[in-house]
Amino acid sequence: MKGVVEMEGNRKTIQFRILLVCFLILGLVFSITLRLLWIQTVDASDLRKRAEKIWEKQELIEPSRGSITDRNGEPLVRDIVKYIIAADPTQVEDPKEAAEKLSPILNIPRDDLYRKLSNKGLKHVKLMGGGTYKVSRDVQKRVMDLKLEGIYAIPTVGRQYVEGSLAAHVLGFVNLDNSGVGGVEQRYNDQLKGEPGEIRFKKDARGIRFSDGPEEFRPPRHGKDLILTLDREIQFHVERVLEQAMERYRAKGATAIVVDPRNGDVLAMANRPTFDPEQYATTLETGVNDVNIAISNVYEPGSTFKIVTLAAAIEEGMFHPEQTFESGSIRVGGRLIRDWNGGRGWGEITYREGVYRSSNVAFVLLGQRLGQDRMIRYIERFGFGRITDSTGRKTGIDLPAEAKGYFFGRRLYESELATTAFGQGIAVTPLQQVMAVSAVANGGTLYKPRVVKAVRDPETGKLTENKPEIVNERVISPETAAQVRQILTGVVEHGTGSEAALEDYAVAGKTGTAQKPKGSGGYASDRHFVSFVGFAPAQSPKVVVYVALDEPSVESGSVSGGTVAAPVAREILKGTLKALKIKPQLSSLEDRVNLD
Q1: For strand 68-69 and strand 324-326, is the pairing parallel, antiparallel, or unpaired?
Q2: Half-sphere exposure of 175 (CA within 13 A, CB side)
Q3: Residue 477 is among the residues annotated as catalytic for this protein
Q4: Model confidence at 201, in pLDDT bands (50, 70, 90)?
Q5: E-strand spans in 173-264?
Q6: Do residues 428 and 405 lie in contact, with contact meaning Cβ atoms separated by under 8 Å?
Q7: How far is residue 311 from each of residues 73, 380, 443, 479, 491, measured CA to CA in Å?
Q8: Active-site residue, from 67, 165, 296, 303
Q9: What is the pLDDT confidence band of residue 245, given thresholds at 50, 70 and 90?
Q10: pLDDT tens figures, 496-509
């Protein structure tokens, strides 16, 4: 009986175990079914994306940055094949020897190279110094010819500035992030950089692309090209002349601008010292050559500003060229203002001669005749802004970092009106002066300057032109402009601007010699900012030229706009007129309209 009971107990245990196993199997099947349903519905989208990451590969295709040419299509900037020189330190047999051989080629300190090449914990290191890491094909070949173990070159795309430092401050450069810094590279970065493309394809477990797999392809949109208003030949000439002037006069800095007064096109803009955009990491120095002096620095204009006072006086009928005054000095508001020759003056002279000789007294008297309200109005008309404001008005040129100029920020005292009339006590940019004189040269119209003439789509060839823009259609009347041009021609033929005269062309212009302010107040007697602004041919101007040198020095004689800046302007005018193929045009003062 006992055995039967045990057998019955064993059977029930077995049945229970079988039933438990069946339930477990059913539970497992049910769980799998639920999971499959969940995967096919709720998780399907997410899992598909995760799977695609495994069997699909996506790559970005970098676009080419747009090229930059001068107004005649001559290349200035373009993308070319460059190389990144890299190393596998674990394969470099003799780091010291490799560093010694590579240093002069890559222009990287030997110790820096040795430190990188000795780091055996790295398998890949880029050999670059000071931010420069892309080298030319010539440099790449010289490196490879060394046949150094562990040294290799990676092809990439880099920026080439075809003419080295030519127009560096107008062009700017491209940094390590492939973004423009300074110049048109920065101002037109969005148009130049383009948009990257994309390619997606299937791959196997080893990352190899399937030949028959599905593929998606979106081509890159390459950057647009810029056509500048600059003329490469004129720019070359201006920079060569400016470099010679820097050496001759040992100046702290210099700038020169050439503009077509008929539309505001900048034909040349140069600064010294300068830098090489392709080697900016080693040639650009903060506070030395990193500023476009022509548009970003402000100076007291000195006598070149007298053109504004002269034009205003003629327009208002207050300039009588044969009327006389006593030159030498004049007291205004308790301040004694002297002529530039130490207050000696030239005795009793006509106002015409006063302009020729750049008499401060003559312009103080003209300023008094005009009065504060008229002076404020004409200075604003000529594009400088209101001198009763703290800052002036930008010209609006399509370049970054343009300065505004600095004014009084209030109504003027009597002595301040007097000094403003001959260009002292206010600060403006060289470009503001150029555009103001351009309005005189072209008959009274103030244009907005531009350095980019058009933007071109490289795929369609379509041009989008930056059309000339008028800021003020009538600054002064054409008749007034003609009279100012005649008098400024006399300044060059008989006055302080004689060193700017050309043999085959009549030149009109005005010199400027401004003492630089001292930090403690007042003016430094031995530090000057000298300038000349003029145009040619005087009867029908095609170019306006501005030249300025900061703190020049001469071995003998005086430092002035007439002795230093005017000769530089003459050389720039001569080469510019030749490059533009302007036919010689001469006439004497006797042939011109009498201003009496």
Answers
A1: unpaired
A2: 9
A3: no
A4: low
A5: 173-174, 180-181, 197-202, 215-218, 225-228, 253-260
A6: yes
A7: 38, 13, 11, 11, 15
A8: 303
A9: very high
A10: 999 999 999 999 99
